Amino acid sequence: MAAAPAAAGSGAGRGRRAAATVAAWGGWGGRPRPVNILLQLRQGQLTGRGLVRAVQFTETFLTERDKQSKWSGIPQLLLKLYATSHLHSDFVECQNILKDISPLLSMEAMAFVTEERKLTQETTYPNTYIFDLFGGVDLLVEILMRPTVSLRGQKLKISDDMSKDCLSILYNTCVCTEGVTKRLAEKNDFVIFLFTLMTSKKTFLQTATLIEDILGVKKEMIRLDEVPNLSSLVSNFDQQQLANFCRILAVTISEMDTGNDDKHTLLAKNAQQKKSLSLGPSAAEINQAALLSIPGFVERLCKLATRKVSESTGTASFLQELEEWYTWLDNALVLDALMRVANEESEHSQASIVLSPPGASEENGLPHSSARTQLPQSMKIMHEIMYKLEVLYVLCVLLMGRQRNQVHRMIAEFKLIPGLNNLFDKLIWRKHSASALVLHGHNQNCDCSPDITLKIQFLRLLQSFSDHHENKYLLLNNQELNELSAISLKANIPEVEAVLNTDRSLVCDGKRGLLTRLLQVMKKEPAESSFRFWQARAVESFLRGTTSYADQMFLLKRGLLEHILYCIVDSECKSRDVLQSYFDLLGELMKFNVDAFKRFNKYINTDAKFQVFLKQINSSLVDSNMLVRCVTLSLDRFENQVDMKVAEVLSECRLLAYISQVPTQMSFLFRLINIIHVQTLTQENVSCLNTSLVILMLARRKERLPLYLRLLQRMEHSKKYPGFLLNNFHNLLRFWQQHYLHKDKDSTCLENSSCISFSYWKETVSILLNPDRQSPSALVSYIEEPYMDIDRDFAEE
């Protein structure tokens, strides 16, 4: 699934280094004293002692210094703000002062996100920096949190407009001044309090944007169960607010530790899992549970994900949100691109949109113009795409969480899959228009494009939905389910129980199910497309688990095997990720299936083609080992069957003949063991260890295990490194025992995918690790005493 999405425009990376900024301002007024004041304030900010706020200076002093330093009157304004924001204040004057401060900071923030800022490498933002340095950020936090303070038993209140001004100024300061967002993130009570400001529609978008930035840099994940009245808060969101809220949820429900990444070692993962067991559920797991306990939450997400463009919020409210985006610079690049779309289309029609600058709008935020009620269709589509991105991500994370089965049931019940099927052609996999939305510095094929990101998120969701779950048959329509039954009937094999149990009222409708639609676009995908990897992963997840002949034939009849072979052989694909996904898919498609091997031999019908195929396999066994494993398992099954059709395939298939040779198997075995070590094992390459075990388990079945170990010993000696391979293998198998004997899911996957009982896996490993040097099937029997190194501690340092 991939990891969670980064907070857009996080404040941590926006600013310039504070020390460099102070140095750049050293020449203000030509005198050193203002710089000394700034340095003292900076020191006070870091230590909490000494000069920390404007209130510690007299107004006369600040006015005098302002003449020299050009501080734009910000320290004096902060002094007045402090004086007018005390507990007994009516806040009227306070709000007027905020309105004086706001434009001084918003202009800098606007400059920060415009293209022009790239032209000046050393651009500084003195107003936002001075505002923060003289204690403005801390003062605004105190003002915003005044409602949490009781005065004579009554809670203080401040207006939504005033909260909005405070949030605007805070956000602009975060945009331009490094470190502000991190400091706010450390104020946990403030972060939790911000959620309560989302109850008002006036302050919702500003609050959500600030929270998203803060959570993006927060070291420790917040717990949603600490948010007051979370269920009521979320339940009262309209659909537009809920979609925006998903941007925040993306940060709160994804594990902060990247230990789930394929590149992280299994040693590190195991250590983290042991630690997690002692600590209890993680914050992300607690947050997922909190959301799932909210009545109707998943149902509303499914409705958002499957909503058609015509059902989206009306034009006026969308334009008002665009107005907010204009003010809230986090989305300025997106807005700029949206407006470019509108401008391009307005050349061909009168459906143009003109956004007024902040402060120039009428009471409702929209100037009176008939053009304001018209919106280009492409902009409506982009609006919906950007919402669906966030919603699909949240659903995908929930599908991979502890409550997976609960989420699966709800997603099926609320018809997410048939809903996405109906959107497939017109929205998800729509053709790019000439004015398709792209961000600055990118193109339509860039992974940053919302169009592209939506497709990838959609494919990730399908992968998570199908993986080892019987609900995968909801990806088909009724006619396609009948086809599966007919395939089983014709082959005289029992129907798959999950197919029989599928609720036909929840499957896809229309002429084609979602899986078939995916196959169609997959076969049309350009060779260099970044989608190939995700498409193959999504289809492979449909085949994972216990091998189903009917599922395989369903895909074979649609030309999937020929497409994969074309990509591997004829297009000579160079991408390692795409090759790995195609080899994995090919292995699942062909495993134990005689018809698939016949089709393979028909396509790879010359020695030249076969050599290209072998070259691709041998170029990286980490990528191709799952195919090697599936072909090896299939060969073993075919050799034990008495059937004319099978005998014909065994005699004719180049691939089966190649794998059947002992030298070929030994070559694979030697390389598979040699390319991995305990310290470098990851979720991606541990399959090499399991494939080597499959080869040896099948050898054990034929009572040839001692022969294979003896051949490995000879190969070691031929390389002039006696013991190096078998010692490494011994350590790998010790780790295998620690890793798999305590993880039920992994062991079940091994058993289902290989059709070899897990007890046989365990027995084979135990036999290989037998310490008796007299045992002909023990690794130690083939490691000479001087080269013995089997007790090494492989705990990660």
From TrEMBL:
Keywords: Receptor. GO terms for molecular function: phosphatase binding. Pfam families: DUF3689 (PF12463). Residues 350-371 are annotated as: Disordered. GO terms for biological process: ubiquitin-dependent protein catabolic process. InterPro entries: TRPC4AP. One of its GO terms (cellular component) is Cul4A-RING E3 ubiquitin ligase complex. The keyword Metal-binding does not apply. This is Transient receptor potential cation channel subfamily C member 4 associated protein.
